[in-house]
Amino acid sequence: MTTTAGPGSRPDSPPPGPPELHQPSRRVVEPSQWRGSILPPVAAGLATLCASTSLTGVVGGVGWLGYVTVAVVLVAATGLALRAVRTPTVVVGLAQLVALLLLITGVFTSNGIVGVIPGPTALDELNGVLTAAFDQIRSGLPPVDATPPILCLVTIAIGLVAVLVDTLTVTASAPAATGLVLLCVYAVPASLADGMLPWWTFVLGASAFAGLLAVDGNHRHRRWRNRDSPGLGNAPAAASAPVAVVAVALVLGLVAGSAVTAVGTVGRLPGSGQSGAGAGSGGLGVNPFTSLRGMLDQGTTVDLFRVRGLGNDKRLLRAFTLDTYRPNRGWSLPDGPMPAGFPANQPLPAAPGDDGAGEARQIQIEPLNWVDVWMPVYGQLRGLQGVPPGWYYDPGSGAVFSERKQRIAPYLEAASLAEPSKDRLESATAGGGDIPATYSQITGVDPRVVTLTQNLAAGARTDFDKASAIWRYFSAENGFTYDTATAAATDSDALADFLLNGKRGFCEQFASAMAVMLRVLHLPARVAVGFTSGYADGDARLITSQDAHAWVEVYFRDLGWVSFDPTPRSDGRGYVPPYLQSGATSSSSTGSEDEDVPSVSTTRVAPSGAPETQGSVAHPGATQATPAGSAPGWTGWTALVLVLIALALTAGAFVALRTLRGRPAAWLPLAAAGAWLVAVVLTAWLVHWVLALVLLLLAVAGLAPVVLREIHRHRRLTAIGEGRPGAADAAWAELMDECTDRGMPIPPSDTVRTAAQKLATQHHLDDEGKAHLRTVIGAVERSWYSPAEAMDENFASAFQGLRRSLERNAPMSWRGRLFPRSVFRKRITAGRGTPAIG
Length: 838
Description:
22 strands; Transglutaminase-like; 6-stranded antiparallel beta sheet; transmembrane; transmembrane helix; 5-stranded antiparallel beta sheet; 24 helices; Papain-like_cys_pep_sf; disordered C terminus; alpha+beta; 4 domains
């Protein structure tokens, strides 16, 4: 029979403590030194390297993989070498960061001390490289070329990931936590790529992560206490379970991603494949690239624009121009920062070659299903009405752009549609004026193409005659055929293959080829991308996705950019300007109404969407465009510094948790989490402030449980440490929450002794921990049945000792720390009147 003390009674001696708490026998298994010391860092480096293959979606080529491999191997080797001589953990992490910094300095700067040590000059040079990289990320369209700034940034980013994964795997013995880090490596290219990432990158990453778990997961707790943790055995099935789980998740994810949710297809959602007016697909844009091999993707016809004000005139509607030739690939926007731009809703400077003397035609353009960063315009732009803030005009490229793709409301364009006569063109000189000399420069052209070009222009007297000779070469008489099915490749050089062998393709191939040949003759040329004039629809013209087109523009001094469309047409659809018609001298003409030729591929614009136009000469009064949503220039560098700080704080937190086991290190995890959060938000800001805001809100929501748990814990520990009334109740409530967070909740119906027995058994308390538990249980019992009795002066230290024993013998999982179960369960705190001793 059990005797209970009534409320308010004071026994002559404290009630008996709980019975002797026996610790179950345990089996000690020492892992081999090779398996425990070599395999985890090797597996961590391999997992990082395999995850980095996801960057193939946003960085062109494979050369960057060599830089990444060197960085990962350097980090792993540094860690192995220093741990072999028992170097303190914090020093290992810092040494890995220093080794990475020396590598970056030696490879990407030229002013390092002894070549690799970063001095002030080298750091300043590195700052310029990183600034250029962040500018290219903010304005480039994936996949970007592997320029030195991009290579530097990729090496730094993956190197830091390698340090963090190595620290989590080896130092913290928490390889499962690396899954979140590796997932972030995939998240960036998946959100920026213009299509789905290659399936094999996911297979590689998931396989390496499963191997990491298999190597280290079955021995995490054994490395803490050299024993098996509850519920884990040494059977092969225990090591193969993580592999099976990851494999099943990978298969389900790939199947669902490709067949169900269309994840990775640039924003297309299930059921959004419809077309036409009112389609829910979000609209179309044009890809700022023209391919020499051709990658036409017409799809279904979608109405894009309704135009009024052209009358019977037929003109090409220009969206943007391309001035950078990629050998054997095609034409694209240049690398580099955003151009200087004039706000499009304010008075605009004159376009090159426009003296303002001619008539300004008022053209109303109504976008229907157009979503892009470009605002198409006709002729030589003089002004725009109905344009909201955030749109900018670059006279050098003739493009009107914004920093993000968006729907456009109807707008009114004032433009000069005058075209020069043939006589004026024959007397004009190509080049000169205010355009950069780069418009006439080109490299990487096959010698056969150069010879062909020079032969075609051999008898030409003027620059216009040279351009006309090249234009006339692309005719049916010379074997060229317009076709949406390109000829099979028979030559390694795409341009030579098209001009000399295949001679079959669509507009982007004809335009790309002619622009290259003009530059071979040192004539300033560029490729324009936009639309043909569509078809008549009442008093308007309707332009559809089938009208997407590419042509060539040549610059003539005092006349501006003059159009040449080399695509041969046999259906009468094409528009031949008067200066290219036989014997024409007039500057006015009309074209055929019966056009139906598909051309440049219509695709969804890449997520980065920021246009890069050629480096035009600055104009007086020009305002540097700083589009809404873009981050300040210091954002990228600050984010990198915060990542370094976060890595140091993370390493310090793990060391403190393993050695100090006390409150002095409690601020380190919070500081590390805060640094990571701010770094991620700043990085997202480089894309757009909306993404940064969304990530911030998600982080706040995700951290809410752990913050709430820390508030409760801090309040209770303060009450216990100061010996306030109710300290024993606070200690008991905290113990119950500690058990719940570890996945072993104790039912509220259990007596104190039963609860204590379960706590000691389930969490494998050592002798010191059991002694502290007796002290705590005794204080709790006395507070309930003899509240007037003074609190044991050793109570606070005993409670802290009990918490340290729990950490030693039953370390809390990452899930328990980030998502404490006690926050999501109803708190039931034992109070006075509860049955005392069972």
